[in-house]
């Protein structure tokens, strides 16, 4: 039986095992996908090998450490410097980032777009920024504090803090912060966010399973909105494709994995 797993901390809430095991069932594969809470990201490579895994996903907070531990990095992950998918090939661990292309698949209905504003400057913001730049969008980014902006400046992204951000028109505004996840906070002060949204067509929140204050405000301003469910789904579909060398029909993987979201 082929073994797969997700590593993270926390990881109890992850529905990746359900998504992948549903797809294994749908394709009659002799495979299993489990979850592993990992305190120390540096232990990931040894654990991957001890568990005899063929592939794995990596979630918060180990995506950057996993990037360092892999023997080879492929695709957009090189630019993001963080990975969420590992496959074992000829005894080497190969790292990929499927969050970035997964995000582009999730906003497919919004395309084509010319400009986007990313709110937040964490790992998810980096993946989304690189994905949007590959699609030739002009990307701006605003964050609560200055410290994390340098790596975005290095990518030629226009960066701002709350102190020097001036509202203007964007095609798409994306919340990549955790504001609204376990509180009632907006990701940007309302006096900056509302005039921005009044000149914006589309909004995306990476948070899923809840209507955040950000999405509520976007809806109030008549934007077309999406939450993070499809991004989660598509990063999983793309990871599955990597695990099985693109052998299976993408539409069928989507159909089977989608059942994980029916609660
Ligand atoms: P990080 O911890 O790397 O980054 C968090 C960012 O959010 C920082 O820029 C931080 O600002 C900002 N932030 C946090 N709290 C607030 C607040 N109250 N107001 C304004 N800004 C705030 O997080 P990740 O990038 O790893 O994850 C972010 C979110 O994305 C999580 O909610 C996660 O669940 C979700 N996610 C969703 C995925 C999906 O598939 N849908 C995939 C991956 C993640 P500062 O720098 O000032 O601290």
pLDDT < 50 stretches: none
Query: Main β-sheet, in a few words?
Result: 6 strands, mixed
Mean pLDDT: 96
Record field, number of beta strands? 12
DSSP strand content: 15-25%
Count every helix, treating DSSP H or I runs of 4 or more residues as helices: 11
The string of secondary-structure elements, in order, is EHEHEHEHEEHEHEHEEHEHEHH
Helical amount among residues, as a percent range? 25-40%
Q: Structural class, judged by helices and strands?
A: alpha/beta
Radius of gyration: 18 Å
Q: What small molecules does the structure contain?
A: NADPH dihydro-nicotinamide-adenine-dinucleotide phosphate
Indicate the overall shape.
globular
Strand order of the largest sheet: 2-1-3-5-6-4
Query: Termini, distance in Å?
Result: 28 Å
Task: Explain the overall architecture.
- The chain is α/β, with parallel strands linked by helices and about 260 residues long.
- The protein has eleven helices and twelve strands.
- The protein has helices spanning about 15-25, 45-50, 65-70, 75-80, 100-105, 125-135, 150-155, 190-195, 215-220, 230-245, 250-260, and strands at about 1-10, 30-35, 55-60, 70-75, 85-90, 90-95, 115-120, 140-145, 160, 170-175, 200-205, 225.
- Strand 8 (about 140-145), helix 7 (about 150-155) and strand 9 form a beta-alpha-beta unit.
- The longest helix has 15 residues, at about 230-245.
- It is globular, with a radius of gyration of 18 Å.
- The model has no long low-confidence stretch (mean pLDDT about 95).
- The structure holds NADPH dihydro-nicotinamide-adenine-dinucleotide phosphate.
- NADPH dihydro-nicotinamide-adenine-dinucleotide phosphate binds near residues 145 and 178.
- The site of NADPH dihydro-nicotinamide-adenine-dinucleotide phosphate (NDP) has 26 residues, from helix 6 and helix 10.
